[in-house]
Amino acid sequence: MDQPSGRSFMQVLCEKYSPENFPYRRGPGMGVHVPATPQGSPMKDRLNLPSVLVLNSCGITCAGDENEIAAFCAHVSELDLSDNKLQDWHEVSKIVSNVPHLEFLNLSSNPLSLSVLERRCAGSFAGVRKLVLNNSKASWETVHTILQELPDLEELFLCLNDYETVSCSPVCCQSLKLLHITDNNLQDWTEIRKLGIMFPSLDTLILANNNLTTIEESEDSLARLFPNLRSINLHKSGLHCWEDIDKLNSFPKLEEVKLLGIPLLQSYTTEERRKLLIARLPSIVKLNGSIVADGEREDSERFFIRYYMEFPEEEVPFRYHELVTKYGKLEPLAVVDLRPQSSVKVEVHFQDKVEEMSIRLDQTVAELKKHLKTVVQLSTSNMLLFYLDQEAPFGPEEMKYSSRALHSYGIRDGDKIYVEPRMK
To answer: Quick check: keyword Repressor in the entry (predicted)?
Structure first.
């Protein structure tokens, strides 16, 4: 097979990690000098390679000299080849087969969708534990071939691949613990259940930004499909029904849930969302990335009881009855309005007249005088005001500062204001 034109993996490696661009430094994680080996290269003394190689966005189209790759990459454990121009799985295999200790491989955003991955090529990936194929548009046929040849694969990333359906593999992958399959077009639960069949040991399932509308599965079936699932991410899914949230309790080991940006929660306040979710999910220890403390759980469960206590019986969830059994029937919380008063009722005394008035506390003394002008038939310049607090021990206080706000006097309902003409 003809080697594709373009920059080779080995060419980019030599350029990036030459002494001029990547000087040798001592210390953990900084750089590793490659000692001479039987596969040695005349270039071996000029390169200092770390065990983690980052060669993203370098225009790589092919492998280059395989003997050179073997000489320099014997110790490499992580390789980032994302956003290059690799189109042929055979060229990828040439690279990987010469990196014997490779555990992490990132092939994101390489145009590999039109290339068929043969099983003999996939065999070179056998030691990989973490594989990233985001935005590679890898077909399910390719994924199945990989799964059959990677017996130790633990983490698989399949984001941004335009998947609308899931194709079941002929064999289960017992080793996979984490599946990251965000930003696809998976809408039907029948597709998600296939993931449970393929990956029975799955610990973490990240489904964010898929428009999954409902969880159509019985509780018993959910427990069988995902018996080891500990964490699920449903951010920005299409879930719109509380019954779907309740079904998450069917996963026997679930303890972490992420549920931001779903239609169901749009009409609730931030506080209501968190408390209602915590109360409905008794086994979770982390919600949307935050630990659920014991005190918060109890507060949420008590909130849940009070929230639903006035609902019609047919609308009350079963969880309400469970919590009433736990805490008993609770009294509604007293509603305490802590906002400052905006107006008060006072007695206005002028000569022998007493008139009860409602006055605004946000106005100034000068504004109050204007308001009283028609009541007492005095001009504002000829008017003196005195405020008497009903509990004040020292008698009336003259309201002499025209710009002072009335609320600063602490005026309350039932207090008195005396109006007197200014003596000439």
So the answer is: no
